TrEMBL record:
Name this polypeptide is given: Coenzyme A biosynthesis bifunctional protein CoaBC
Catalytic activity: (R)-4'-phosphopantothenate + L-cysteine + CTP = N-[(R)-4-phosphopantothenoyl]-L-cysteine + CMP + diphosphate + H(+); N-[(R)-4-phosphopantothenoyl]-L-cysteine + H(+) = (R)-4'-phosphopantetheine + CO2
Organism: Candidatus Fermentithermobacillus carboniphilus
EC number: 4.1.1.36, 6.3.2.5
NCBIfam families associated with the record: coaBC_dfp
Stretches assigned to the Flavoprotein domain: 5-177
Location of region: Phosphopantothenoylcysteine decarboxylase: 1-189
Length: 407
């Protein structure tokens, strides 16, 4: 699966360093050539000879030790790598990389490497949640680094929290995915919307919906991995933005429309996976409305129709919408396809287990303007995202938006 690929693994001084031994072993079994770089602190936890035995390659620790081969070794490894994996990545190493500090063999090689980089943070949960660390991770994501989120569980200190290094199998699967990714969307400029919007009633209450943004974020991440230039316009969600994606955060439907219009002329396609509110209060009260014995009458007005606005000015854009319905799924979705001038719509029925809001899986009915339709799923939202992007790519090739597709 990884034959002919070279993975450079940087091991920093976290207690989870022992898991990196199995990661290297699994990568070797998949055919990868592996080279391990260790920080001095990491050698206090795992002996370099362990990695040397498994990788069948010298393990480098000291920046100025006598080289095993006659070359500028950190430059040679940086150029040799098809992927640079840092596992585990401590808060210290993450901070140094984010700030461009190259004061040891590991950070110097990272600085010189132009290959994709995957960082696997592992640390105490309070360290992981520290705003400084989170800011460094955001910076690295914006620079295109891939971050594999740590998991929730019991930590070395005995405390429960988010900070555990994922199991080796999951880390290796992420490496395989990155190394085998086909950049068949390179050249496509894509706008994705995700999450809910909020329409405020007063300073403490708002109208919204249960959208978590998982589907839109899965599409943005998958498109970025396939080489697209991705702009993500997101409502309020509790998700980390995918690496390499340009994020714009909004709150209201009007703000989401404004953000989309500001990007519209610079993109080729739009996938509107967000769930913007359909209504807003006629008036937002300046002060909290007090609870009284009588019911408060709430007068609502329709919000801006984002997709219809984009569809009315479609030009050569590829437009894809989403529709969450409780009944008459195909009929209502077909009406939206035609009314909003879409290339296709992904409709899913609300209330079915494993589909729609909050779920990690989904099932959609793809409906086209000519009345044809097809079912996708049930499957993971990642795989649903890939299937949607396959259909966008087909249209982009037909319209000559994408040129020189990979053979």
């Amino acid at each position: 699966m990884l034959k002919g690929k070279t993975v450079v693994i940087g091991v920093s001084g976290g207690i989870a360093a022992y898991k990196a031994v199995e990661v290297v072993s699994r990568l070797k079994k998949l055919g990868a050539e592996t080279h391990v770089i260790m920080t001095r602190n990491a050698t206090k936890l795992v002996a370099p000879i362990t990695f040397r035995t498994i990788s069948n390659q010298p393990v480098v620790v000291d920046m100025f030790e006598e080289p095993k081969r006659w070359n500028v070794e950190h430059i040679a490894l940086a150029e040799k790598a098809d992927l640079f994996l840092i596992c585990p990545a401590t808060a210290n190493v993450i901070g140094k990389i984010a700030c461009g500090i190259a004061d040891d063999y590991l950070t110097t090689t990272v600085m010189a490497c132009t290959a994709p980089k995957l960082i696997c943070p592992a640390m105490n949960h309070n360290m992981y949640e520290n705003p400084v660390l989170q800011g460094n991770l955001r910076k690295l994501r914006e620079l295109g680094y891939r971050i594999l989120e740590p998991e929730y569980g019991q930590l070395a200190s005995g405390a429960m929290g988010k900070g555990r290094l994922p199991e080796p199998e999951k880390i290796v699967q992420e490496v395989v995915t990155l190394l085998n990714a086909t950049e068949d969307l390179r050249g496509l400029r894509l706008l994705v919307t995700a999450g809910p919007t909020r329409e405020w009633l007063d300073p403490v209450r708002y109208i919204s919906n249960p959208s978590t943004g998982k589907m839109g974020y899965a599409i943005a991440e998958a498109a970025s991995r396939r080489g697209a230039q991705v702009y993500l316009v997101s409502g309020p969600v509790n998700l980390e933005p995918p690496s390499g994606v340009h994020l714009t955060q909004v709150e209201t439907t009007a703000e989401m429309l404004s953000a989309c219009l500001s990007l519209y002329d610079d993109v080729d396609a739009v996938i509107a996976a967000a769930a913007p509110c359909d209504f807003r209060p006629r008036e937002k009260k300046k002060e909290k409305v007090k609870k009284t014995e009588g019911a408060e009458t709430l007068e609502l007005l329709p919000t801006e129709d984002i997709l219809k606005t984009l569809g009315d000015n479609k030009g050569k854009h590829i437009l894809v919408g989403f529709a969450a319905e409780t009944h008459n799924l195909r009929e209502y979705a077909m009406e939206k396809v035609r009314k909003k001038n879409l290339d296709f719509i992904c409709a899913n029925k609300v209330g079915i287990p494993g589909s729609g809001f909050g779920s990690d899986t989904n099932a959609v009915t793809v409906i086209y303007p000519d009345g044809k339709w097809e079912e996708i799923g049930p499957d993971s939202k990642h795989n649903i995202a890939l299937a949607i992007l396959d259909r966008v790519r087909k249209i982009a090739l037909e319209r000559n938006i994408l040129e020189n597709p990979p053979v």
